[in-house]
Design a protein that fits this description.
The chain is an alpha+beta fold. It has ten helices and six strands, in the order ααααααααββββααββ. It has two domains: about 50-190, no CATH class; about 205-325, 4-Layer Sandwich (Phosphatase 2c, domain 1). A four-stranded antiparallel beta sheet has the order 3-4-5-6, with helices on one face. A two-stranded antiparallel sheet has the order 1-2. Strand 1 and strand 2 form a beta hairpin. The two termini are about 50 Å apart.
Length: about 325
């Protein structure tokens, strides 16, 4: 078993690398780095577009405080070299330098996360961080503002060092709180999804039915843990057999919930309308009030009777194929 798992892992790794290089080879070599970044960019995941801004507060604060170290380091270097701060405000120049640098980097990171405000955040992000860097270069090379005394520069360096430690520790704590909160949310969602999967397995078990009219076998295999695929067989009171397949649009929990409601509607409807046409009209009326406007269902059914067979389709691909050349 272990050898099989390892072999599977290596095969997947090789396949993934092959996909990366095939993707990269399909574009000009000048944009190779950009293409590889777009191929697997964690910040471009749809998950980040759906996370409420309130849940990103600790992430943004953690990034800002952690990356503010860049501004503090620049101020410390400037004080050590020429006894001037990044900004001409004396011994406190490191605090605005660090915070502004962190704000600029954070805005740029969030521009990758939230597509809605991407342009605004990008326009605000790099200019702020770059402005701090320009002020640092001016302070070191141009001497645009007066030097501090040795005692003043030493005090400024001490303030920068203490601020750097405080911001780094606080930012690290914010990031840990964000990771912990998201981890708990993911664990709860995974647990609920497992429960939903077990419920769906109960609602849509593999079907197997034999009678003098027909033999029907079927099972569903959703692409995700929970899906909207449905296959069912219902013996009717007139000794006929009703078999059908349905597919709810989309994936995940919403499709699974609607699938359960759809199965109930079919079985209840068959008690009053055993012919396929009347059943489809009933399902259409029921679905209109149960579903979200963006969702829909396809349906295909077969009804086997002593007199023959009837079938009906609603958005489902053709179930029976006839070739005149075989006659």
């Amino acid at each position: 078993m272990r050898m099989l798992l390892r072999g599977t892992s290596r095969t997947r790794d090789v396949k993934r690398r092959s996909e990366v290089w095939q993707f990269a080879a399909s574009i000009p070599s000048v944009n190779l780095k950009q293409a590889l970044a777009q191929y697997h960019n964690p910040l471009s995941s749809p998950h980040w577009q759906e996370v409420p801004l309130s849940r990103l507060r600790n992430l943004a604060l953690g990034i800002m405080l952690t990356t503010s170290s860049g501004g503090f380091v620049m101020d410390i270097i400037a004080m050590a070299l020429v006894r001037r701060g990044v900004f001409p405000i004396g011994i406190w120049s490191g605090i605005p330098a660090g915070l502004l640098f962190g704000v600029g980097v954070t805005a740029q990171v969030l521009s990758k996360v939230r597509k809605q405000n991407r342009k605004l955040l990008s326009l605000a992000g790099w200019p702020i961080a770059a402005g701090v860097s320009v002020c640092y270069v001016i302070a070191v090379t141009r001497g645009a503002w007066p030097e501090l005394s040795i005692k003043g520069s030493n005090l400024a360096i001490a303030i920068d060092c203490m601020s750097l430690v405080v911001c780094t520790v606080t930012g690290y704590n914010c990031l840990l709180r964000f990771i912990n909160h998201e981890g708990m949310s993911y664990a709860r969602a995974a647990t609920e999804l497992q429960h939903a999967y077990r419920i769906q397995s109960t609602l849509v078990p593999p079907v197997s039915a034999r009678s003098h009219l027909a033999e029907v076998f079927g099972r569903t295999s959703p692409s995700e843990q929970v899906g909207g695929d449905l296959v069912d067989v219902v013996p009717l009171s007139d000794s006929s057999v009703f078999a059908y397949v349905a597919d709810i649009s989309g994936h995940g929990l919403n499709a699974g919930i609607l699938m359960g409601m759809y199965k109930t509607a079919v079985r209840v409807g068959l008690e009053a309308h055993q012919d396929a046409g009347s059943l489809l009209n009933l399902l259409n009326d029921v679905m209109r009030v149960m579903k979200d406007p963006s969702m829909y269902a396809t349906f295909g059914c077969l009804r086997f009777t002593d007199k023959g067979m009837e079938y009906a389709l609603a958005g489902h691909p053709a179930m029976l194929h006839y070739n005149a050349a075989d006659d």
